[in-house]
Design goal:
By secondary structure, this protein is mostly helical. It contains four helices and no strands. Helix 1 packs across helix 2, helix 1 packs parallel to helix 3 and helix 2 crosses helix 3.
Length: 78
């Protein structure tokens, strides 16, 4: 089957950042996002969030994960 659901597309977006995608998964995700503006927007937003988190973690390498979470959440909630 060539088409995937929005639910599967969102799962692939998260998998891309956590584990990486197979060639087939990359292709299916790309095809779905080309036809679904909501999933395309979700993927862009998730990519941006991941980039910001990685950047912040590199800058704060000396802090613990819990301190990082607390600091990040306090900035989001403001």
């Amino acid at each position: 089957m060539f088409s995937i659901s929005c639910k599967r597309a969102s799962e692939l977006v998260h998998k891309k950042h956590n584990e990486g995608l197979t060639t087939t998964e990359k292709w299916r995700s790309k095809v779905h996002s080309s036809m679904c503006s909501a999933c395309k927007t979700f993927e862009k937003q998730t990519d941006q969030i991941e980039m910001i988190i990685k950047s912040r973690m590199q800058k704060q390498a000396s802090t613990t994960v819990e301190d990082f979470k607390t600091d990040t959440l306090s900035k989001i909630i403001k």
